[in-house]
């Protein structure tokens, strides 16, 4: 009698794996590569894991698969024209699948994602830029609509009262007997206003 196969799947394992890899990186444990970045004389070094970088970046995958074996336990990669803060954010993203950056840095993060061929970060930046653009367009549309309504009300102030004057008889005519004024007339007129 054969048993049917069942699927054992963990929903938390990917997040736990990322969190543990991030902790190992932050503590400098099991890191086998040092990435040096430099931009306008500012330089920094970041210990990392080749496997994580290669899994998240086609650039690093190509570098590591094509490198010659080295004598030491660690290899080095040098990135020129990459800002320290941007690479630190890149590392945080590839190790945690999220990073918080200022709005004005989103374009730079997109550029580093494209330079390092990190499709997940590139797609994330692209989607965020799209949302930001849609938000700006919506604000512009709302502003334009409010401007148009203000212009319309400013353009027709004299015609609106004149039209109301034609519909409403003067107050003296309401009080004059024999003109067909009803007791509900003034109350009904005030509701119209």
TrEMBL record:
**One of the record's GO cellular component terms:** nucleus
Query: What keywords were assigned to this record?
Result: DNA-binding, Metal-binding, Nucleus, Repeat, Transcription, Transcription regulation, Zinc, Zinc-finger
| Location of the protein in the cell | Nucleus
Q: Which Pfam families does its entry note?
A: BTB
PROSITE patterns on file: BTB (PS50097)
Predominant subcellular localization, coarse grouping = nucleus
Q: Outline the segment boundaries, as ranges, of region: Disordered.
A: 144-193
Which domain of life, per UniProt? Eukaryota
- Which stretches make up the BTB domain? 31-103
The residues that cross the membrane are: none
User: What InterPro entries does the database record attribute to this sequence?
Assistant: BTB/POZ_dom, SKP1/BTB/POZ_sf, ZnFinger_BTB_dom_contain
Tell me, what is one Gene Ontology molecular-function annotation carried by this entry? RNA polymerase II cis-regulatory region sequence-specific DNA binding
Q: Which SMART domains match?
A: BTB (SM00225)
Q: Which PANTHER family match?
A: AGAP004733-PA, ZINC FINGER AND BTB DOMAIN-CONTAINING PROTEIN 44 ISOFORM X1
The name this protein goes by in its record: GZF1 protein
State the organism of origin. Pycnonotus jocosus (Red-whiskered bulbul)
Starting at the broadest rank, the lineage of the source organism is: Eukaryota, Metazoa, Chordata, Craniata, Vertebrata
């Amino acid at each position: 009698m054969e048993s049917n196969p069942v699927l054992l799947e963990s929903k938390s394992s990917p997040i736990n794996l990322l969190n543990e890899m991030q902790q190992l990186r932050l503590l400098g444990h099991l890191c086998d590569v040092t990435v040096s970045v430099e931009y306008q004389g500012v330089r920094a070094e970041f210990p990392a894991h080749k496997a994580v970088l290669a899994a998240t970046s086609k650039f690093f995958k190509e570098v590591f698969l094509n490198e010659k074996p080295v004598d030491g336990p660690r290899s080095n990669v040098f990135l020129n024209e990459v800002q320290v803060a941007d690479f630190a954010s890149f590392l945080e993203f590839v190790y945690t699948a999220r990073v918080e950056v200022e709005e004005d840095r989103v374009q730079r993060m997109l550029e580093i994602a494209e330079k390092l061929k990190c499709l997940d970060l590139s797609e994330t930046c692209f989607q965020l830029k799209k949302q930001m653009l849609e938000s700006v367009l919506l604000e512009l549309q709302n502003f334009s609509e409010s401007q148009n309504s203000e212009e319309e009300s400013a353009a027709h102030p004299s015609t609106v009262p004149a039209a109301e004057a034609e519909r409403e008889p003067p107050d003296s005519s309401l009080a004059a007997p024999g003109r067909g004024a009803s007791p509900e007339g003034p109350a009904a007129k005030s509701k119209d206003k």
